[in-house]
Write a structure and sequence with these properties.
Layout lengths: L3 H37 L4 H22 L11 H21 L5 H8 L2 H11 L7 H18 L8 H28 L1 H23 L8 H28 L1 H7 L3 H13 L5 H22 L2
Helix pairs in contact: 1-9, 1-11, 2-8, 2-9, 3-7, 3-8, 4-6, 4-7, 5-7, 5-10, 6-12, 7-8, 7-9, 8-9, 9-10
């Protein structure tokens, strides 16, 4: 029997899950900005990726030790955790490689197809059941995102599209693997190990390539620290939300990140948007709201 108390508890739990996922979006907003400041200070992608993993590892380790949580990773999850770390490396390589080959708006649009790819995988595997209405609102959200980004298709480069698709598929891989680890050891510990793998992978690449470029200014070093902190917030909050809502619902909510970043640019930097882009804002936010209403009614 479903009581009012049970319904209220479910709604409260859903609200917490959505709040964590939105918090993840705040962390994501700061990732490209802090990375760009580090690049402008003389660093490069591999060095930033290495320091991001190293800083995130130190932050998460201090938090885990501070709350006296066990950071032991069960042996049966070791490979799964490693795959999440490898996925993170592929994501960095694919995304940053893509934006040098195609315009950034197209790269972002391809990347943010990952919630739909994830939904298709989980639906076909029987992990979840997605209604026709939810599929419809997924597609509407992606159309709204294309309007916001003002995607231009006159600079399509197959290599760039392939790299952006690699980043998108890597995000699916990260979500599917790390959410399993987080379900057992918690988001803090699962992301601690994913950060360790990332630091080790990019550290090895730096040793082999010999292309270590540290920032040449205080701003660059502060940006590196901020990048590592934002990385922690983004992933820990996301996988906490995913444990509550499920991977697909949490991933769908991340579609709010591009319009949020654009709104911040409008409020803080005075950027202007066309009427069509404002329609895109309303389309994305409205479709995500409808998706959540459909999901909550299940």
């Amino acid at each position: 029997m479903i009581t009012q108390a049970t319904t209220s508890k479910k709604m409260s739990r859903n609200t917490i899950g959505v709040a964590y996922t939105l918090l993840s979006g705040i962390g994501v907003i700061f990732l490209p900005t802090t990375a760009k400041l580090a690049y402008e200070s003389g660093s490069n992608v591999i060095t930033v990726a290495f320091f991001r993993g190293l800083i995130a590892t130190l932050i998460l380790l201090l938090v885990v030790l501070g709350i006296r949580q066990s950071f032991r990773l069960p042996r049966e999850l070791l490979l799964t955790s490693l795959l999440a770390g490898i996925g993170g490396a592929f994501f960095v390589y694919g995304m940053y490689g893509a934006i040098t080959s195609i315009n950034i708006s197209l790269a972002i649009l391809i990347f943010y197809l990952y919630p739909i790819v994830l939904a298709i995988y989980e639906h076909l595997s029987g992990s979840i059941c997605i209604s026709r209405a939810q599929w419809f609102w997924c597609l509407v959200a992606c159309c709204g995102l294309a309007l916001i980004l003002g995607v231009r298709y006159d600079q399509i480069n197959l290599n760039g599209v392939a790299l952006a698709s690699l980043a998108m598929l890597a995000s699916v891989m990260i979500t599917l693997t790390n959410v399993r680890v987080a379900a057992t050891v918690g988001s803090l510990v699962s992301n601690l190990y994913m950060s360790i793998w990332g630091a080790l992978i990019f550290g090895l690449v730096l040793l082999l390539a010999g292309d270590f470029r540290e920032p040449q200014s205080l701003t660059g070093w502060v940006s590196l620290l901020g990048n590592g902190a934002a990385y922690c917030v983004a992933w820990v909050a996301f996988f906490t939300g995913a444990r509550i809502l499920g991977a697909t619902r949490a991933s769908m909510i991340t579609l709010v990140e591009p319009p949020t970043a654009a709104l911040v640019a409008w409020l803080v930097f005075g950027e202007t948007f066309s009427g069509l882009q404002w329609v895109g804002f309303a389309t994305v936010l409205g479709s995500l709201l409808m998706f959540e209403i459909e999901a909550g009614s299940d």
